[in-house]
User: Fold these one by one.
Assistant:
Number 1:
Amino acid sequence: MASDTKALTGHADLILGHVAAREDTWAERLRAWRTQMGAAPGPMEVWLAHRSLATLDVRLDRQCQTALRVAEYLTGRSDVLAVRYPGLATDPAHEIARQQMRRFGSVVGFTLATRSAVEDFLGACTLVYEATSFGGVHTTAERRARWGGDAIPEGFIRLSVGCEDADDILADLAQALDKSWPNEA
């Protein structure tokens, strides 16, 4: 089961997902369920998804390369308490990710000291949008703890790197971090 709304379609203009099966028995059960429930996308949704497949590899490559640069940059900041990105050799998930993945994804998690630091940071970003939908061509971020239910720090941010120029994203992050903690940058 996958959310095609994210990287697969990648333009933030479609809500779509899919379920795939290797075994014939499960595939037949899925086909029967779809036939009975009518869970099939409309022609416009299919066209949008098909259009997006042409740029999937290029978008993912750009996003993942930039995400690694962002993660490396964030690890060098004294105002960033922690960084999670499986592409970093220091990340606890790096070894297993290296075995399972060709690319390490476009989402970087990092922690600032407080909720207000995150709110200041997000408010100071000019290129990064505050949003909860990830995987699009524009870089987005959210303070995950605002939704509750997860055992994470108030200052934890999930950043989904888009396709903008890497230097532009890094410059925006730097200026926003500098504004959120001006005495520590």
Note: Helices lie at 24-37, 43-53, 56-75, 94-100, 115-124, 166-180.
Number 2:
Amino acid sequence: MRFSIRSLITLCVLAVIVGAIYYFFINKGITYPWHWERIPEMLFYYGAKSADDPVPRLRMGVLMIGFVLTLKISFVAIIFAIIIGTIVGIARLSKEPVTKGISLAYVELIRNTPLLVQLYIIYFFVGSVLRLSAFVAGTAALAIFAGAYVGEIVRAGIQAIHKGQTEAARSLGMTYAECMRHIILPQAFKQIIPPLAGQFISLIKDSSLVSVIALADLMFQGQQAVARSYAAFEIYFTVAFLYLVMTFTFSMATQYIERRLAISD
């Protein structure tokens, strides 16, 4: 997977911004005591975990534990968002007024209310009734929220395919489901990769909101580490960098898929 010129320029710009911030702190008389030496042990450390696990070995620190949980939450939410969004996108094009109305109501309701409010409703109301864990409730909230946007992206992608292809497939005896599966959706998928990538990158960043329901993701672990060590700038800079690693890697993977699909065309 090779880096594009645009990606390298983006990294250089980010490096300049971080360097400028650091230079500002050092040279403008701000007497903040930097303690970067505390960060490595929050990522990885060598030692025993507890009395129940006294064998010393390389272990993940609190920030890496949160990093892994954030990846898990984001991955599961993305999978379910794709499933929900595909169903909603197809339903939005249905000729059945009830199906179309329900999908439209879902999209408008989710897109026009804050994610934080949806998270509270699902965790405190739905979660308490169905006895959902914080992980399930947080992941469900993210998937439902992103699913509404993915649904509109899928709908736009399907509508970008010429209607003549649907008519040709139906004239060959294909059902509507077969036409969508074999003809329309594979072509629409290539059209919607860029907006889907942008939506999923936003989802990874939005996952930081699950910290409000005490789910020990990267943001929550960072907040707890700041409360214990008071190294606010060092920890939050590290947290921001770890989010950047996730989103930038996802962006590079998306660009790679786009290039591969372009070659197949």
Note: The mean pLDDT is 87.
Number 3:
Amino acid sequence: MTPETAVDHQRLEAELQALLGPHAAVACCSTDGDVSTLAPVEHLAVARAIAHRQKEFAAGRAAARIAMQRLGRPAVSIPAQDDRSPKWPDGIIGSISHSHATCVSVVALKLHWQAVGVDVETDNDLPRELWSSICVSNEIQRASTLPDAIQARWMMRIFSAKEAYYKWIYPQTRRMPEFHDVEIFMNATLESTGFFVHPLYGKSNGALPNPVEGKLMIGQGMVISLIIG
């Protein structure tokens, strides 16, 4: 597949909002952000970045501010912390992700949720040379039960689910798990609408919480994984 083009961001927002409920909000836009809209404290994070990265970063911050307004909160600046993760205002949790052409930001009220993680990928094949570094043996075995032509696209869904999980867990533990620290369970089909993340309790990840459920949305040439809870 080719990277997504001409994305209907309004429709994408409506579909994602339907998954979130009333205490969270989503905003979607292109990755061609306006760098001039960044507050000085935000621009510090990308001052030395290439132009494309600066535009992508500006798009993410703009989407996050729109989402905060949709929750009835002020559209304040969102600086980057030392670890480069967003520093959300008091009472707000959130997550930002970019694909080739689309930026998605989900924010929620901390009163109702402890963390949110979103990941957006182009609905392409996950290169086979990356499978062993990203996926555990059981995930690779389940992929092998699918027709050869769609195995690599299904593995992209596994990758996206793990990325969403890492964005969800990091604010809670301040520690980033490895790809092999969790196993993803989802239906062996390209039409899966959800997944479960199971920590694999080894010496490096004993602090991870119990299994968590995520949602998967496929459309407009994208794979979007979402965990909120």
Note: The chain is about 30% helix and 25% strand.
Number 4:
Amino acid sequence: MVIEEARVLQHAVCKGPYRVLELHSPALVRSVVPGQFVHLQIPNVPGAVLRRPFSVFRTNGERFSILYKPVGRGTEALARVGTNVTLSVMGPLGNGFPLDTGDSFPVFVAGGYGVAPLYLLAQRLPRKGMVFIGGATADDILCEEDFRFLSWPVRVATEDGSQGERGLVTDALDAWLDGNGRRDRVTFFACGPDGLLRGVGDRAGQVGSRAWLSLDRHMGCGLGACLACVVRVQDREGSESWKRVCRDGPVFEAREIVWD
């Protein structure tokens, strides 16, 4: 982990309200694993002392990018940051996705900007798989062409039918699993809202597969000291305990998580 002042190299609209922020941080890029995150200090937010967590989206040489949507005071202030500004960055933090799926076929399921850690994973995995991307509208479908450029087939679903299939992304996943998807042993990787993660975990259990889920929680310190981001888990014997999403996650195997 490093804490450094990273210079903003580029800040641009990705699609709809979503934005991509690119920063220069050689030390962070050298050590990051797909699924890890950075804790960013956002300037010009009166009264705010806590950093904000963002998944690492892309790496390129000594640069890394985050993908985000302005939804509150912090991210709206971040959207006003220009190039050549320096931001305090802490990371990479947490535990990422496993990079070896053995002989199983990798299947990604993402909702909205949940594509961010999965895109970096697609770049690093030795075997190509299948990507399912869902969102409420076409504006929420991100990185479809980026995955296709990596030669990963993509299925898209939107709740209003404005892009791809109409319905939830898990509906598209079910149709695939009921067809040619059942020919292969699969490993699921998912990032998005809790409902999507729970649905992917349920389906993994039904087909006897493993599912690695990236959880999104409000965080205080990002280091595991404040216990603001705990999640209930269970071991193989069914004993329950608590783990910290920032330090023990954000990636967990689906069978660990006890959903409320």
Note: The chain has two domains: 2-93, 105-214.
